[in-house]
Write a structure and sequence with these properties.
215 residues, mainly alpha, two-stranded antiparallel ribbon, 2 strands, globular
Length: 215
């Protein structure tokens, strides 16, 4: 699987894997919604909407990777750095639902797995690594932590996807694990660079100004 095929299509996952993925995603996304209802300020709503639109548009642009493959921004970790992992989980979930229902990008039966991989595992895994690394050093190391967190989010999502495919009997783990992780470890370099550039720009201009279009 390559490029946009981090979005698993229908027919690749077994029913048990699909059901477990849907249930786990529902729990994770539901917990994020409940937390935001308690703690989110009203001004966050347009910011989240603008970030969702940006990530959706950014995912349309692929960059070339070795061997004829291509990659694109996943964006979960980027959103987590800008608005927090709870909001990022919801943002990426909305993006994935729209892509699935309107553009057939990822299967309906596989939507739970795609949300689990990209909205939950990638977002929270990259965020946890970023926070751990940021705590070890000063501000100068923060940009390295952002890059590593973004790169890790891509690798985590690809590993989860490979495990689901192997558990479904679609392809042997010894084949799919190195193939998926190897390609997406390269794609993750682009994820890290793009994330660092966007965060740097937004922090200079101000997230509210960027997301509202104010000068």
């Amino acid at each position: 699987m390559e490029g946009r095929e981090m979005h698993i299509p229908d027919g690749f996952l077994s029913i048990p894997v699909s059901v477990v993925s849907y249930a786990t995603s529902a729990i994770g996304v539901g917990a994020s919604i409940r937390s935001l209802k308690k703690n989110m300020a009203d001004r966050m709503i347009p910011t989240m909407g603008a970030l969702a639109a940006f990530i959706f548009a950014a995912q349309m642009f692929n960059f070339p990777v070795a061997g004829g493959t291509s990659g694109h921004l996943m964006g979960g970790f980027l959103a987590a750095v800008l608005v927090g992992p709870m909001a990022a989980t919801i943002i990426i979930s909305v993006v994935l639902i729209v892509q699935c229902l309107l553009f057939q990008d990822g299967g309906l039966l596989a939507l739970g797995a795609n949300m689990l991989n990209m909205a939950l595992f990638a977002t929270w895994g990259g965020w946890a690594i970023y926070r751990s690394l940021s705590a070890l050093s000063g501000r100068g190391f923060r940009w390295a932590a952002i890059f590593i967190g973004a790169w890790s989010s891509m690798v985590i999502a690809s590993a989860a996807c490979a495990i689901e495919l192997a558990a479904s009997g679609t392809i042997a783990a010894r084949i799919v694990m190195p193939a998926m992780i190897g390609v997406h470890a390269i794609i993750g370099i682009g994820e890290g660079l793009i994330t660092a550039l966007v965060v740097s720009f937004v922090e200079r201009v101000g997230v509210q100004k960027v997301c509202s279009g104010r000068p």
